[in-house]
Prior knowledge:
The chain has 201 residues and is an alpha/beta fold. 55% of the residues lie in helices and 12% in strands. Strand 3 (49-54), helix 3 (62-71) and strand 4 (78-82) form a beta-alpha-beta unit. Helix 7 (144-154) crosses helix 8, helix 7 (144-154) crosses helix 10 (189-200) and helix 8 packs across helix 9.
Amino acid sequence: MTGPSVHIVDDDAAMRDSLAFLLSAEGIETRLYDGPPALLARVGELEPGCIVTDIRMPVMNGLELLAQLRRRGVTHPVIVLTGHADVPLAVQAMKAGVSDFLEKPFDHLELLRALRSALAQGQSEASRLSQSAEIGARAGLLTKREREVFEAIANGASNKVAAIKLGISPRTVEIYRANVMEKMKAQTLSDLVRMAMQLKE
């Protein structure tokens, strides 16, 4: 097989093998690592592609791994896998430069979409500016309350925390959140976070 490789970093052997099997069935080449030290040991000889890493691992978490990679000049796009409780950490990771995060359990189509996006991340500045303008236009359709919910969720707040902050019920936050997802044309929470970050650029 030729083409870019997906470097999978996870201390869970079953998860590594499952991802490798799924991607090989799609004709995508993979490299497996049992933790950040194993990946960092290959800095300088990493095949082109992207990196998929768990956010919570012993020794070093996904955010610390990203910092080490950037410090060593590795510019591969990074996708982090996160449990529900780790969403605020995943949002922090996106602000630090992670290209995407996926909440477990995720389906394989969602993973493939994120991977294709990461592998094609070298989009031109012109298309990035056009995308930012489109996101700005969508954000302009939000009501004041929808905008507040959008900002709270994009900053990593749970529905419950956002509800307390805004003085409304968690159920009302869910309704606003669904409206925001629809108006912003966001398919996932990470899409929403990325859009919020682009609006701030």
